[in-house]
């Protein structure tokens, strides 16, 4: 049965409307993606309280939102915050000390020392970006009292801003092997807040389980490994020093591959010398036998990378890499020691920590060397190694100069920030290095085969 013209028109109109609706839906969906979303009011930023538990002291780091502090003290601080905090510092210290009161089990008060106050930018998931002040304090219990069991009376900001909250978490705990594992989930942290029913602020009871030596030792091994893993400058120094270690010298230039046995022997000497050097100063520095300002140490570490990078291009101390590695290892060891000296450990605990920390450093160094060296040895037997070595040395030179400038001036620069960001993908660099080594070695091998085939055979 045929449809009438009117029915056909109605059918087409219906289809047109359907397509039109679908088209409009796609437009609405597209606009919802590309147009800015409506902004809702952010929640108030919270104070983050991080505790570092050691046998002698409890380190406390406060991350205080500047806008909330401004409300609590009734003073304009968000306008020119650096200058405002500097002018307000004496009153701020007095305010902090009056609202943070740790006491032992027998209600004996602890002594508190404020070691650092700094204005920084911050961001919290529910609050967006804002300005904060970061305050570091040392909390010292009375003689004979434990740092693992105490009461923290804390009403900073919330005594006036009743909606404010503080999230407290244990960041470091030597006895249980916890190192730098900050609790980022607010639901898992201890919360200090005003009770809306009573209007009171309850004290926080800190009661930590006692750890053992095995946990402490394992934690220090882990800390040593983490220190190298995150220490881009330490790793870069070692890798740049290894770049020419597989080569022989040819006058004032680097020559050909020195053979597997010779290369491995030289690499072993360099790594061992670096280990001996940093182990000595790690021991001396961690035991606090003498103190060296941290800034010149960090500058010298960057200088060591620069010198090693120049050596990777042109030999400036051929055959003496072992002694240079040991000398610079002494400098790097002082930087390692800074991570331990802040723990305020007893002599026996410090001895155990130095051993575990050093083992962690060596394990991570050997792991990195084992991943990199085989590919360097393959590449150094090819014509591709020279440009790759120079490219690596130039990259290290740029990074070293950026670090030197940054550490002398105290101001971060774009190159240093870029290097730090790229270092997070170092594991991908290993795969790229392996791919280039196999490709270059394969091409070189095929070239040799073709040359042999082209040579006339002897009758």
Molecular structure report:
By secondary structure, the chain is an alpha+beta fold. The protein is 54% helix and 17% strand. The chain is built from twelve helices and eleven strands. The strands form three sheets. Strands 4-5-2-1-7-8 form a six-stranded mixed sheet. Strand 4 and strand 5 form a beta hairpin. The longest helix is centred in the last third of the chain and has 33 residues. The protein is elongated. About 6% of the residues have low confidence.
Task: Sum up the structure in keywords.
single chain; about 450 residues; alpha+beta; 6-stranded mixed beta sheet; 3-stranded antiparallel beta sheet; 12 helices; 11 strands; about 15% strand; elongated
Which secondary structure elements does this structure contain, and how are they paired or packed?
Layout: H1 5-34, E1 47-53, E2 58-65, H2 66-73, H3 81-99, E3 100-103, E4 111-124, E5 128-140, E6 149-154, E7 165-173, E8 190-193, E9 204-207, H4 213-230, H5 232-242, E10 247-250, E11 253-257, H6 260-286, H7 294-313, H8 321-341, H9 347-379, H10 385-409, H11 414-422, H12 426-454
Parallel strand pairs: 1-7
Antiparallel strand pairs: 1-2, 2-5, 3-6, 4-5, 6-9, 7-8, 10-11
């Amino acid at each position: 049965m045929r449809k009438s013209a009117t029915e056909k028109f109605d059918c087409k109109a219906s289809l047109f409307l359907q397509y039109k609706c679908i088209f409009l839906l796609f437009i609405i969906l597209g606009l919802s993606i590309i147009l800015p979303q409506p902004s809702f009011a952010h929640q108030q930023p919270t104070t983050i309280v991080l505790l570092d538990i050691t046998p002698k002291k409890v380190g406390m780091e406060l991350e205080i939102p500047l806008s909330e502090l401004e409300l609590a003290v009734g003073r304009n601080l968000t306008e020119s915050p650096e200058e405002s905090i500097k002018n307000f510092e004496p009153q701020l210290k007095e305010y902090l000390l009056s609202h943070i009161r740790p006491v032992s089990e027998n209600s004996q008060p602890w002594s508190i020392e404020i070691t650092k106050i700094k204005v920084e930018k911050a961001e919290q998931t529910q609050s967006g970006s804002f300005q904060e002040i970061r305050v570091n304090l040392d909390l010292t219990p009375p003689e004979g009292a434990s740092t693992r069991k105490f009461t923290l009376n804390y009403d900073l900001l919330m005594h006036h801003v009743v909606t404010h909250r503080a999230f407290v978490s244990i960041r470091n705990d030597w006895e249980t092997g916890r190192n730098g594992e900050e609790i980022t989930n607010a639901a898992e942290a201890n919360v200090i807040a005003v009770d809306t029913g009573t209007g009171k602020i309850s004290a926080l009871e800190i009661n930590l389980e006692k750890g053992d030596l095995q946990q402490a030792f394992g934690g220090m091994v882990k800390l040593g490994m983490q220190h190298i893993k995150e220490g881009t400058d330490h790793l870069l120094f070692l890798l740049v020093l290894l770049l020419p270690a597989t080569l022989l010298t040819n006058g004032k230039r680097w020559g050909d591959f020195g053979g597997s046995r010779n290369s491995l022997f030289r690499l072993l000497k360099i790594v061992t010398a670096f280990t001996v050097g940093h182990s000595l100063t790690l021991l001396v520095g961690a035991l606090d036998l003498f103190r060296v300002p941290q800034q010149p140490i960090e500058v010298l570490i960057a200088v060591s990378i620069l010198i090693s990078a120049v050596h990777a291009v042109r030999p400036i101390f051929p055959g003496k890499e072992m002694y240079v590695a040991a000398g610079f290892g002494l400098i790097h060891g002082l930087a390692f020691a800074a991570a331990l000296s802040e723990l305020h450990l007893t002599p026996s605990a410090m001895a155990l920590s130095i051993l575990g920390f050093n083992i962690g450093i060596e394990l991570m160094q050997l792991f990195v060397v084992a991943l990199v060296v085989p590919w360097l040895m393959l590449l150094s037997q090819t014509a591709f190694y020279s440009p790759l070595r120079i490219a690596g040395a130039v990259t290290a030179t740029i990074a070293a100069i950026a670090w030197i400038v940054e550490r002398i001036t105290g101001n971060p620069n774009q190159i240093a920030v870029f290097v730090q960001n790229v270092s997070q993908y170092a594991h991908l660099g290993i795969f790229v290095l392996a791919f280039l080594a196999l490709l270059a070695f394969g091409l070189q091998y095929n070239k040799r085969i073709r040359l042999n085939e082209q040579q006339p055979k002897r009758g």
